[in-house]
Amino acid sequence: MSEYLLEMKNITKIFPGVKALDSVQFNLRAGEIHALVGENGAGKSTFIKTLTGVHQPDGGEIILEGQKVVMSDPIVAQKYGIAAIYQHAASYPDLSVAENIFIGHEFKRGPFINWARANREAKKLLDAVGADFSPTTPVGSLSVAQQQLVEIAKALSMNAKILIMDEPTAALSKRESEDLYDISRKLRAQGTAIILISHRFEDIFGLADRVTVFRDAKYIGTWDLEEVDEPMLVHHMVGREITQLFPKKQIERGKELLRIDKLSRMGYYHDVSMTVHAGEIVGLTGLVGAGRTEVVESVFGITKADSGDVYFDGRKIDDITPDKAMAIGIGLLPEDRQKQGLLLDWSINRNISLSVLSKCQNGPVLQKKKEYEISERLKQLLAIKAPTTDTLTSALSGGNQQKVVVGKQLAADPKLIILDEPTKGVDVGSKAAIYEIMNDLAAQGMGILMISSEMPEVMNMSDRIYVMSEGRITAEFEPAGLTQDVILNAAMPKSKA
Amino acid sequence: MKKNKLVSLLTRWEVFLLVLLALMCLVFNLQDAARVASGEARRDVFNVANVVRSMRPYMLYSFMTLGMMLILAMGDMDISVGAAATFSVVVLGVTYNALTTAGLLGLPALILSLAACLLVGALCGALNGFLVTRFKELFPMIITLATQLFFRGFSYLLIGGQTLTFDDETFDLLKELNSLVDMFGIKVPVMLPIFLAVALVFYFWLHLTGNGRKIFAIGTNAIATQYSGVRVDLIKFWCFVIAGLMSAVTGVFFVGATSSSIKADIMDGYHMYAIAAAILGGFSTDGGKGSVIGVILSLIIFAVMKIGLGTLFGFADSAVNLSVGIILILSVLLPNMVNKLRDDLRVRKRRAEVSKAA
Amino acid sequence: MQEKRKGRPLYALLIEHREIPLLAVLVLLLILVSIRVPGYLGANYMNILKGGSINMVMAAGMLCVLLVGSIDISVTAILAFAGAVCGKLMGMGVIQSTWMMFALGILIGAVIGAVNGVLMSYGKVIAIIVTLGTSYIVRALIPMEWLLGMNKVTPTELTQGFKDSMVTNTFLGLPFLVWTAIIVTVLVGLFLKYARTGRNLYAVGSNAEAAQVRGVPIDRIKVLAHVICGATAGLAGVMWLGYYWAIEKGSANGNEMFTIAACVLGGVSVTGGYGKITGVVIGALMIATIDSAIPQLQLGNSMITEFIKGILLLFAILLNVILQRIADKQALARRGI
Hints:
The complex is a heterotrimer.
Chain A: E1 6-15, E2 18-28, E3 33-37, H1 44-51, E4 59-64, E5 67-69, H2 74-79, E6 82-85, H3 97-102, E7 108-109, E8 112-113, H4 115-128, H5 144-157, E9 162-166, H6 174-189, E10 193-197, H7 201-207, E11 210-215, E12 218-224, H8 230-238, E13 256-265, E14 269-277, E15 281-286, H9 292-300, E16 307-312, E17 315-317, H10 322-328, E18 330-333, H11 337-341, H12 348-354, E19 361-362, E20 365-366, H13 368-382, H14 398-411, E21 416-420, H15 428-443, E22 447-451, H16 455-461, E23 464-469, E24 472-477, H17 484-491
Parallel strand pairs in A: 3-10, 3-11, 6-9, 9-10, 15-22, 15-23, 18-21, 21-22
Antiparallel strand pairs in A: 1-2, 1-4, 4-5, 7-8, 11-12, 13-14, 13-16, 16-17, 19-20, 23-24
Chain B: H1 2-10, H2 13-37, H3 48-53, H4 56-60, H5 62-73, H6 81-101, H7 107-134, H8 140-159, E1 164-165, H9 169-172, E2 180-183, E3 186-189, H10 191-208, H11 210-220, H12 222-227, H13 232-257, E4 261-262, H14 270-280, H15 292-312, H16 317-357
Antiparallel strand pairs in B: 1-4, 2-3
Helix pairs in contact in B: 2-15, 5-10, 5-13, 5-14, 6-7, 6-8, 6-13, 7-8, 7-13, 10-11, 14-15, 15-16
Chain C: H1 2-6, H2 10-16, H3 19-36, H4 40-67, H5 75-91, H6 98-121, H7 127-141, E1 152-153, H8 160-167, E2 170-171, E3 174-175, H9 176-194, H10 196-206, H11 208-213, H12 218-244, E4 247-248, H13 256-265, H14 277-297, H15 304-334
Antiparallel strand pairs in C: 1-4, 2-3
Helix pairs in contact in C: 2-15, 3-14, 4-9, 4-10, 4-12, 4-13, 4-14, 5-6, 5-7, 5-12, 6-7, 6-12, 8-12, 9-10, 10-12, 13-14, 14-15
């Protein structure tokens, strides 16, 4: 028998339009924690889905305990002892905790599901992972961290040989993460092999034995954790020196553009005050769920704040709505490009013109020529890679889609542009291009408020940094001499840490 | 790129409808000629005059279809339009009766009643629009299911189970709306030119103005549209109001067609015709697509099918409904299958490249 | 845990059991009518049950399709078609037994439901369009000459045994019509609560993406839901025939809205994933009760029934949303931000 519990050789997966995996390799020993890293879009999720039988690979083979196997569907994978904890979309919010744990391998009494036994067994599992909620609670009413525990309990219930954790700590506090680490180590000691996908280097260096890197759907390499350090991993992940990424220029700071004064919205954020000046790039960071997005959404008028004031260009703005915000010169690049930013079934041209239709009208009638003038100009300016402006945005890469969304905002000639996670799911090449654009805009005197969870981006692109935690601003920094630890410390929830 | 434009033009639903219409005309013409040749029929029946004439029943709900178009373009659904139309004409009748009883006779009474009718239609739409924009957690279909029963309830509340009949000259003017007039040497239903004029306005609005573009944007992705600075709720509200107004208009024509008698259930279930006609015209409950031209074509297809299948081939009216059902499903199934095929081909091509490379 | 449960506010309880307020209204209504019309709950209420049981059977099937996030507006067309075919076959002497009628009705309905389901899940056609299409098709087939030519089924075509079976014959004092509704709802309820496949209906509707990564055969489950819905509609067709002794192409046209309304009143989520058979039963009873009880109250205009039905449904669905909003707000406040 080979030294590996699992070997995946030359796995290739093709989707309409993209090659999601290009002959990648992976192997796993029993009783190890093996980290799988790579940027968004590197192919990690697709890879996991070929292992769990959700997708069928178009090439390559999976060898489990020396035997070639075919994961024809997720049930088969479960039977082989493979369990996965997915980052999103894994639980059924309307169903109870016990049911979420045992769905697919229910306790039966004759043809019927034995609910009493399911609830009893679920209670045991919940105790094992340190959860203090009842097995009959609907999962939808639990917090994200609690839902994560349900997922882990589910994995435990299957007595998995191989456990896949996809970004398990993304929404967890430090304390909750520690708990998860403990459970993982316990499982490893019992001989379970764990595949850990994470963006947090502290997860990887604190927990993993080996690490495999994917980049642009290709296999880059596998190393023992002792052999690598953080810069090396980053280098493998992005494929170039990170310093090149951030072409930060010094720009003269202009007058105050945006002032948020004691803005509060119950349950989302409280007493938030900040300023953005012309020519300035201000970073706003914090953990997912800290309330950053909610603040800017209120500034842009998507939601209403309960109390507090917003001043723009020296004037107090009341009853703001997105159309008014755009009219006075505020642009927002929303967090979820595909759901909030773009009409994917529409062309580049139509997406860009949608935010400035009044400029393209002669009376009420649309002037297609004007639309194309605007969209062509922005396509050139932002170097959007597409055959024409009639290309559908669904056919573009993540980076180019993001540029279209930026273009939508620029078309309205904003004075202030708010970017919510501008480089999320964007390839390295486009990232650099987006940073370049940000610099140019700032140089033209535009104010930029950038929400980001990526520390290198925050530290290298910002002139000032605000940190939010649990709905409050917890710190304000100048980037000079700042280290990642200081920011993370400010971002960690105090109540739970 | 030229080729792509051609392909996208040819795969448009209106083109499919045109081809379908042409094919039907061809088959029906041949059958017509055969019948005349064999002596089975004395004259040909499948001609423009007859098609135009038989458009009359379909014109009845054509206005409602125009309103439904707006709703479907936004990806919403309004099943209360039939009930709203009924309610509006019930108000028309009740107002007219009240006014004549109060001594106001003749044209002024009719005009006031018509105004009340249209106002009620718009108010029904406004209620829908209000609820849809205020209670986003609920599907518009469920909201309008409730308001449908609500409007129906109002109609019954006003006139109960009785049938309002009107036996005076002024009210009989409404019957004129259902008459045929001579135009270009053939008999044309009065409703047809009125419909075409209104449809032209809708065409201009939906396809040529910025506001129309926004309506389709809402149907494609309402959230992203809101983030683009479009006042989604406001547009939605007004579209529902106009859909309600168009229902009331439909109601008025319907009273004309039913010889000026009004009952509290006269237009029950009418929303289904409107939805079917709009979907056949290329709109979808998913929103974001469809065209006024498609809707006009689908109404013509109804009329052609009625003569062709009914008179020429001797099938009952059901054959038309049967075909409507089939085309309805095909209207979504076909494009889906074409897309799937295209995707499959692309994947296969890539796979071939990969295996060649390996 | 126990203490926490006790301390939970009323609205939370109401949200978890959306059928409770409805049940309260139903009981209140019945009490009110009983006071005004002594003896209403006796023989009179039996009539309500009879009339309501057909809708209840269809609503049980509708629950299944709503759970998977789909919808079926062809149920009443299926009802008319299955009823017409069964009735005609009985008239032609092909079928004699009531049980065969049931079996055939269910079979016909299931087949049409399967067509709906396949077109919807494999053809990716939106459910409402598919079922609108099939309802056109199915209703159009009823009067077609080449297909039995059954424009109408008249009482003379039915055997006396069948005519007696539904209403006249009783068991434990309840007519067969009502027993059929009880059996169907119990079976659907057991299936949804205790069968793995039944739970999968909830899973697919609650989170299709999760169901996919966990290997739930989503498409097959959706087809199954439509088959069940079709089957109950077919059965309802035979019930209709047994109750009214006649059926025609326009029978029950538009009633599908009351079937959906029964589900919505019963707290079923139309986005899928949430809904209980108890709620649906109460919802269906509610509609049947209003239909018969309001006229008994003699509030003047007898047609006020329709008005109250409309207001009640509107009120019920808005109440659900408002309760949910209050709960969400409380949850936000608990976050302490």
